[in-house]
Amino acid sequence: MTAPHLPAPEVQARPASTATFFCGEGLHKRFGGVQAVRDISLNVPRGSVFAIIGPNGAGKSTLLNLMSGLYQPDAGRMIFDGVELVGLPAHKRVRLGLARTFQKLRLFKQLSVLGNVIAASHIHHEIPAWQYVVHGAAFGRDHARCRAQAIKLLGFVGLERRASMRAASLAYGEQRMLELGRALATSPRLLMLDEPAAGLNAAEVELLLERIRLLRECGMTIIVVEHNMDLVMKISDRVLVMDYGQHLFAGTPAEVQANPSVIAAYLGAMT
After folding, report:
1. What is the secondary structure of the chain as a DSSP string?
2. Phi then psi dihedrals of residue 24, to 5 deg
């Protein structure tokens, strides 16, 4: 897969800032007798790449599910750009500008590649409901706009030549990139990526790194849950390390690599 020479999707450019864009305080989540997330707090600056790492079962994906609205916390609060998120369902968070990908792919596999991206853009449609039944001029204009945006996004993730193919027929790495393109179709301000490099070969990981860098340069805030330490250390501004559902350490990539507790609990186990 070669990197496309197309502009990045239309993301409103913002300079990187130390101001908190997403804040979680004292988050807890229990499943029966398992405390999956225990007293986790995090502050994600606007325009940054924030990574969450830890061993399998550390609670990383559960934390992302709390942030995206798939789960509600048992305790704690979350603020996104001044808006309280606790109690809001996932679809309302998407309208606020939060989007995510999933560790286990959730594509519409019987739709075309282009159709998958167009479907995601419906969250921001501004046409009367009746025009979905009786297609009027507003529906036509909106559909044309969504199609053009989707084609542009497919170029961004390197799939423009696959637009007419069924999503199920794509190679696994291409399906990963399609999920990224579909998330971007919702026009996010905060993009959450759950294991985006899982199953990718070295060339695909490099393309993913390039795409994340370009999105950050456009001002997008990105949270990455990832096991690929090379990717994490190359792209992240700050890293939160979790272990057994709890906060273990937080700092810059260099600080994480040098911390004895992190090395013992996670990085050392990878070598």
Report:
1. -PPP-SPPP--------SSEEEEEEEEEEEETTEEEEEEEEEEEETT-EEEEE-STTSSHHHHHHHHHTSS--SEEEEEETTEE-TT--HHHHHHHTEEE--SS----TTSBHHHHHHHHGGGG--S-GGGGTS--HHHHHHHHHHHHHHHHHHHHTT-GGGTTSBGGGS-HHHHHHHHHHHHHTT--SEEEEESTTTT--HHHHHHHHHHHHHHHHTT-EEEEE-S-HHHHHHH-SEEEEEETTEEEEEE-HHHHHH-HHHIIIIIGGG-
2. -120, 135
The single residue listed with the structure tokens 């989007």 is 99
32-56 pLDDT tens trace: 999 999 999 999 999 999 999 998 8
With respect to residue 102, please indicate whether it lies within any of the assigned structural domains.
yes
The whole-angstrom separation of Cα 175 and Cα 159 is 10
CATH, residue 261: 3.40.50.300
Global pTM reads 0.85
Q: List, for residues 212-239, the tens digit of each pLDDT value.
A: 999 999 999 999 999 899 999 999 999 9
Asked if residue 96 is part of any domain, the answer here is yes
Quick check: is 54 in a domain? Answer: yes
Note whether 157 and 211 are within 8 A (CB).
Answer: yes
Whether residue 53 is contained in a domain is answered as yes
Over residues 161-179, the mean pLDDT reads: 94
> Which structure tokens are listed for 125?
């449609």
Residue 139: the pLDDT is: 60
| Structural domains of the chain, count | 1
Nearest to 179 by CA among 229, 245, 107: 107
Structural domain including 215 reads: 20-108+189-270
- Return d(Cα 208, Cα 49) in angstroms, integer: 13
